Amino acid sequence: MVTADMVRTLREQTGAGIMDCKVALVDSDGDLEKAAGALREKGLAQVAKRAGRETTEGIVEAYVHTGGRVGAILELGCETDFVARTEAFRDLAHDLAMQVAAMAPTYVDEKEMEEGDTRPVAQVSLLQQPFIKKSGASVGEVIQELAAKVGENVRVLRFTRLALGE
């Protein structure tokens, strides 16, 4: 039996719609973990469909590390200004700027890597790096999770890292 509390809990965890949560819970016989996994898969499939959409809105986020010796500026794009103003979007942009400052990637994605660059992909490509604020997930996976939650294409457009003496 699926209760309203179960639907509410799943909705809070995933950000999915009420009916989607109810259907997922019914299909998983009330198992919250299975239902969350099913919603995550459904959301990622929808993200793949939206991947070609333009991201003409978004924000530019700057992060300067304590002491002022390292900083980063990052442009995170989305489809609408409504999503760009959400707290989750702004928080992700800040976390990604912090990631750039801390991990010093060279490229946004491995597709941009120059021929002959033999450095490990997870070292030089932002989207393939392990996310510093969520162990076990890459930066690309965290971006996809937000895209699934907000229902729009979200992507890092560009970034710059500055450090004294470099």
Specify the biggest β-sheet. 3 strands, antiparallel
CATH topology of the largest domain: Tetrahydropterin Synthase, Chain A
Give the overall form: elongated
The helix-strand sequence is HHHEEHHHHE
Quick recap:
By secondary structure, this protein is α+β, with helices and mostly antiparallel strands.
What does this structure look like?
- It is a single chain.
- The chain has 166 residues and is an alpha+beta fold.
- Helix content is 46%, strand content 16%.
- It is built from seven helices and three strands, in the order H-H-H-E-E-H-H-H-H-E.
- It has helices spanning 4-14, 18-27, 32-50, 81-84, 87-103, 121-124, 139-150; strands at 57-64, 70-78, 155-163.
- Helix 1 crosses helix 2 and helix 3 packs across helix 7.
- The mean pLDDT is 86.
